[in-house]
Predict the structure.
Amino acid sequence: MNSESAKVQLNVRVRKETAQLLEEVVEYYQENTKYGKVHKGEVLTDIIEKSHKIMEKQKLMTRRKY
């Protein structure tokens, strides 16, 4: 198994409301992507990767101002 496909299990506690929001997001992904069945881990990975890209862009923009 290469490092790209290596997975780590995260056991986290979230509020019930947050878990429900995740269910809604997963449902949205399933209905609006061409992949069909989508798992929570895949949705969380997508959200985290997109958020990280946005964060990196914001950090670059902040550095350019000075």
